[in-house]
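Let's do one together. I've listed all components of the complex below, 465 residues spread over two lines.
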Amino acid sequence: MLQVIYYIIITIFALLFLLEIVKKRPFTELVCIAFVLVTFTLRALHIK
Amino acid sequence: MRNEIVVAIVMFLISIGGSIATRNDKKWSVFFLFVASVAGSLAAGMGIRFREIVEGPFGFLDSMLCVCAASVLVSVLDRSGAFVLLYSRISKVKCGILRSFFVLFFIALPAMLTGFASASLLTTGKIIRNLLEKQGKKKASVIVAVGAFLGVILPPNCIPAMIAANGAGSVLPTPYSGFFLPLLVVGLPAFIVYGIMEHKTLSSLEDVEVQDPGASSALIILFLVLVAVLFDEILSSVVWLGGNTLIFFLATVLILFLTRFFGSAKETLETVSEGLMRAAVPMAIVFALGSFIEVSSMTGVRGLFSYWILGYSTTGVMLMLMAASLIIGYFLSIPIPAFLITYAVFPIGWLANTVIVTGCSVVLAVVGLITRRGGIIEDDGLKRTELLKYVSVPTILVLVCGVLLVLFGDKLTFLIR
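Okay, and this is what the predicted structure of the assembly comes out as:
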């Protein structure tokens, strides 16, 4: 269940990240999204 | 000079310099905390230690997942019209003082669920602020900000307490569990007093037009969520409902299926994205702080701190760092005080007394309210002294309760559920 939630969040964040890049969001917001995305992704990769 | 001190100076200078250069812009805090972490690692001669920089945020991951789920739920509730409907019901309450409490609770609710103030400011706070401004109330932004501030402190979720919990312990952080009653004890007196203080203003607000009558199903789900959270937090040893993250997640899915969102993939994605985006900045700050703390531990700064405080009482160290956080936070906003609070609770050890941790953490919530820039109140047009006067009663009450929890936390362990 936890893994499903993690992957849903990662997928939505990844889509958002791409969308936000297209929209030319401020650098700081992109850093925030990237930080969250990287953390969630790496954690999800550690789930066995 | 000891190498640990050089490392600490480098990290602090980058973080403080960043805060000054960007006038405490929250979004830039993430960048500078991250840069400070990398610089600390380099200053210690360890190169860029990717492992520690990533491992730090992991300590916050479970609690941030709950924040994230709550933020999406709040966004879905807001767009479904549930909050407008809830306010409409509240405005029909006849008793003035009771209505005042309900309105204050209404402002605080999103921040209570998510643990960060902007969740309230952008949803329920916006509704109340518009009504207050319509009446020409000069301190509309202050009332909403205090409501959001109380929401941050009140349970179930409180990011300052999550940060503090992470600081307690050495190898493993203390889990964010058992904070419900301590947070209630800290927040409730200020909530009651402020509700009474502002009852004339809060009870005189007019009704709003309900745009979406179908929001009633979302409102029912919100009540069920509150009941489930209460059960989960207080009676979890008897009945475990799966934790708040699961409760918020299921409630979001239910609302999406039962309200007007059903059948509109675009609106659903937009709403969920909005919730995630609102949570992105607070979560990123907490994660970056995790890196900062982890690198400070890796480079021996924490070890040196432990050595230095050996001769002093734990309570004394905590109170001193709380005071330092308050003063530094007034000028430099959250990052450095958050770091100091994690160090303040560190000597208590793993599986720390959550009452004491809660007591320490309230300083961070107070800093968020009173800081000169980058806090809850921005561009309000009020003088700083005027603002501090308006928020003095709730902040002092919260701080007094926090200090009392730190002093008598050992005798209040019955609050931990």
